[in-house]
Design goal:
The protein folds into 2 domains: 157 residues, NAD(P)-binding Rossmann-like Domain (Rossmann fold, 3-Layer(aba) Sandwich), CATH 3.40.50; 92 residues, ProC C-terminal domain-like (ProC C-terminal domain-like fold). Helices cover 53% and strands 13% of the residues. The chain has an 8-stranded mixed sheet, with helices on both faces. α5 links the parallel β5 and β6. α7 crosses α12. The protein binds NADP nicotinamide-adenine-dinucleotide phosphate. The site of NADP nicotinamide-adenine-dinucleotide phosphate (NAP) has 28 residues, from α1 and α4.
């Protein structure tokens, strides 16, 4: 782990993604409980986060952000305007702001806060189990040390990938952001189909989830091309060949291509609102 020092982390918004990040930070011992503060308007959320993780909470965003090394904006995009207005001009120059709000441009955040050290991240929900994929970018004012801080935070709940051009974040939204939704639908379809041919639901779930998990691990660990791995399981006139023919006939690749392109268009449109 890098030698960066993070004194205090403030979460503005203590919802599902903030909770996943808090779990990662504590689990990987990036910071201790006393170094985390989360701000949320809902008393039930604050009580939950205090009880479950022993972190500090407040309903006052300015109080949370005060003296924080990193201020993480973890509210919904539609709540961002109000949050930026409330914190405008109140951050000290060295503080690092990290936003996870989908579609909210880095310039909107920097101008809204009148603050130039901003990192924008597109994470995804597997962060909740420490297996997230975060794509991120930063303003020019974010120096090498702050980039390391951002990396160590993002690595506490999964993998991270830095991109220089913010345009890649809209594409990432359609791939790693929405991706879990697409993959869950495919897995659900496989489970339902397994039940259709006679497996119990419990057995179908176990078979499908472990097959998906093992296939991803195999692709990652062997580093072999996916087509090569697919060919290796496709014997002449065999069962896999029969099933693959039906998937290709049903235009699986074209449907996936259209789904990702549609999500990308939607992500760009939402970013313009
Ligand atoms: N979930 C995902 O898959 C995912 C993936 C990538 C990025 N993101 C982004 O992550 C962000 C958070 O998503 P989430 O799923 O964690 O949402 P969430 O569970 O709704 O969390 C947002 C929290 O912020 C609180 N809040 C609302 N207004 C506030 C204010 N003015 N000041 C402080 N806190 C306020 C909300 O309280 P109330 O409930 O009272 O409104 C809620 O507890 C979103 O911008 C989303 O685009 C999410």
């Amino acid at each position: 782990m890098s030698g960066v020092v993070i004194e205090r982390v403030a979460f503005i918004g203590g919802g599902a993604m903030a909770e996943a990040m808090i779990r990662g930070l504590l689990g990987k011992e990036i910071v201790g409980r006393a170094q985390i503060i989360a701000s949320d308007p809902l008393v039930e959320r604050r009580t939950w986060l205090e009880g479950q993780y022993g972190v500090n909470t407040t309903s006052d965003n300015t109080e949370a952000a005060r003296d924080a090394t990193v201020v993480i904006l973890a509210v919904k995009p539609q709540q961002m305007g109000e949050v930026l207005t409330g914190l405008r001009g109140r951050l000290a120059a060295p503080q690092l702001v990290l936003s996870i709000a989908a579609g909210v441009k880095i310039r909107t955040i920097a101008e809204g806060l009148e603050h130039d050290r901003v990192v924008r991240v597109m994470p995804n929900t597997p962060a909740q189990v420490g297996a997230g994929m975060s794509v991120w970018t930063a303003t020019d004012a974010v120096g090498a040390m702050e980039r390391e801080i951002a990396q160590s935070i993002l690595r506490s709940f999964g993998r991270e990938l830095y991109v220089q051009d913010e345009a890649y974040l809209d594409m990432a939204t359609a791939v790693n952001g929405s991706g879990p939704g697409f993959i869950f639908l495919f897995l659900e379809a496989m489970i339902d189909a397994a039940v259709h041919i006679g497996l119990s639901r419990g057995m179908a779930e176990e078979l499908v989830l472990q097959t998906a998990f093992g296939s991803v691990l195999m692709a990652r660990e062997t580093g072999r091309h996916l087509a090569e791995l697919r060919n290796a399981v496709t014997s002449p006139a065999g069962t896999t060949a029969e099933g693959l023919y039906v998937l290709e006939e049903g235009r699986l690749r074209a449907v996936v291509d259209r789904a990702i392109a549609a999500a990308y268009e939607r992500s760009k449109a939402l970013g313009k609102l």
